[in-house]
Amino acid sequence: MVIQGLLVALAGGLAAQLVARWLNLPDILFFLVVGILLGPQGIDAFHIAPTSGMSDFLFTIGTLAMLYEGGRSLDLTMLAKIWRGTAILSTMGVLITAVVMALAIHVFLGSRWILAWLMAAVLSSTDPATIIPLFRQIRLKPLLARLVEAESAFNDATSSALSLLLLGVIDSGQAHFGVATVQFFRLLLGGLLIGALCSYALNALLTQRRYRHIVLDSLEHPAIISLVIMLVSYAVATRLGASGFMAAFTAGIVSGNRHRYARTLSDERGLAHENYLFTNATVIRMLIFILLGSQVDFGQVSHILVPGLILIAIFMFISRPLTVMLCLPLDRRGHWTLKDMAFVSWVRETGVMPAALAGIFAAAKVPGAKTLSAMVFLAVLLTILVQGATTRWWVERLGLNP
Fold it and tell me: Which CATH number fits the domain that encloses residue 113?
C-alpha cells in the first residue's frame, strides 16, 4: 500500500508541475492541493499518519536534502559581497521575527509561551525552493537577488536550530534564557564548523589522485558521494551536540564550491551529478508538500481560521518589514536603498523548511503540533498566493530591473 501510495503521489506531483508551469505559479502550491485531494479528506489514495516512523523519516531526510541543496546553490564569490547583510538577516532577523510572531501567537491563539515560541521559530524561515525558481523568471538586480536567495538558505538552517532547541526545552520542561542562548549558539556554530570540516575533508580526500580512481572513477553515480557527505556531517554534528541541520547546510556550501580546493569531475560526469541531485531535490520537495497536504486537518484549520489569518497578516505586513528595516541598515557597506529594503520585506514566501519541521514535530507528538501544521498550511498558501504572485509587479513598481 505504501508503494502504491507513493506512485499515486508522484503521478499527482507531475500533473501539479504541469499545471504550475501553465499558470506560471510556484509548484508547491499545487503539490499541497494534490496532497489534499489524495489524502483522507479526498479520495484517500495516499495517507501516511503524522505520527508514523515513515512520516518522520521522509520529513527528516527531506529537510536535510533541501538544506544541503540550498547550501550548494551559494557561490562564495557572490556571498563575499553580501555576507554581512545575509548574516544579520539570517541570525538577528530570525530572532526578531520569532519574537514578534511569538507575541502575536500568544495573544491571538492563547498558546503557552514555549509553544508560541516554537511556532514562531518554525515560521521564521523563508524558502529558497520557491524564491530561486521565481527569480529565474523576472529581471532583478543580481546583487539584490543573491541577497534574498542567500538569506533564505541561511535562515532555514538558523530557524531549524532554534526550533529544535525549543523542542528540547519542551521535552525537558525547563527554560532558562541564559542556558538556552548559549545552547542556541552552540547548535548553530557547532553545526557550521562541523559541516564545513566534514565536507572539506571528504571532498578533498575523495578527489586525491590515489583515492579518486578507487572511489570516484569506480562509481556509476558520483552523486552518491554527496549523499554520504550530507549524512556524515549530520551524524557527526548530532553526535557532538551540534545542529545536524546546520551541518548539512554548510556541508552543501563547501561541496558546491569544491572547485576552489579540490579536483572536480569531468564535464560529462559533473552534468550527470548536477542533474541527479536536482531530480532528487525536486522529488523530495514534491513528496514533502503532498505529504503535508494529505495531513492537513481542516477541522483544525477552520478552528483557528480567523486568528490564523490575522497572524499571517501580521507575519507579512508587520513582522517581515520590521525585521528588514532593523537589520539591513546595519550592513552599511551594502548600501541598500529603501526600495531594496521594500523589496526584501515583501519577498519571503514560506515553504519547505516550515513544512518539514511541522511534520517532524507532528511525528514526535509535540503538544500543539496540529495547530502548528494548520498555521504552516495557511502561511504557505497565503504567502505564495499573495506575495509570490505579485513579486514581478513589485519589482517593476519599485524600478529594480537591471
Answer: 1.20.1530.20
